[in-house]
Structure formats: C-alpha cells, structure tokens
Amino acid sequence: MTKSHDKSGARRLASALLLAICAMLVAVGCSSGPDAATVTCDDYARADFKQQGEIQRALLKAHDLETSSVSNTAGLTSALEDACGWESSNHKNGRAAKNGSRRLDDLVNWKSKQW
Fold first, then answer.
1. How far apart (Å, rounded) are the C-alpha atoms in residues 104 and 26?
2. Max CA pair span of the chain
3. How far is 26 from 95, CA to CA, in rounded Å?
4. Comparing C-alpha atoms, which of 61, 7, 4, 73 is closest to residue 34?
C-alpha cells in the first residue's frame, strides 16, 4: 500500500465519521418535543406541568397558531380541559376524566386562528 492510498482511506473514514455525526445531530434536532398529532387525553393527563406546556406549544405550532399568545394558550388550555375533563387527580392516576384514548388534535376545534 502506498502513502497516498493510506491518506485517501483516512480521508474517506474521516468523511464517513463526519457524515454520521451530522446525521445524529439532525436526528436529535428533529426529535425534540412531543408529536402533537398522536398525543391523547391520557398522555396529557400523565404529563407534568412542563410537559403539558410543550404539548400545547406543539399543538399550536402544528396549526400555525402563535405559541406565545396568552389568549391562544388560555383558549387551548380551556379546550383541553373541556375535552379531557379536568380533575386534580388526573396527573396522579395517569388517566383523563374522559376521552382518554382520543387524540387531542381530533378533540379541539382548530377553525379559529386565535382564541
């Protein structure tokens, strides 16, 4: 084997490693946050306060609604409480009071562009 052949092999290995690292970074970036389309009332009930906020932001974003709007957040919170039932024990028992296996995305009226 010649020195130039060794260098090209090392370059290919370095390129492959760099490509693998870039692919991992893209995958990590894309996987952040909940998938708004699949979250159910039971999932929402099990979530802690921070996770519920992430779910709400993901839902608003999925429907092109402003995530920093107080009225959107308050309106969505109210809609989710109506759809899933609100009880203080929901988080502890991990079950919604109603519509447990139904997807949040299907239970909310998304026709409004703002609440």
1. 27
2. 73
3. 34
4. 61
Question: 15: part of which helix (H) or strand (E)?
Answer: helix 3-30
Give 93's contacts (C-beta < 8 A, 6+ positions apart). Answer: 45
CB of 36 closer than 8 Å to CB of 105: yes
Q: Does residue 65 surpass a pLDDT of 80?
A: yes
CB 84 within 8 A of CB 96: yes
Domain borders along the chain are: 1-32, 41-107
Residue 33 DSSP label = S
Residues 6+ apart with CB under 8 A from 91: 45, 46, 47, 48
3-state helix, strand, coil in the chain (%, to 5): 60, 0, 35
Tell me what the mean pLDDT of segment 25-48 comes to: 74
For the entire predicted model, the pTM comes to 0.67
The pLDDT of residue 79 is above 60: yes
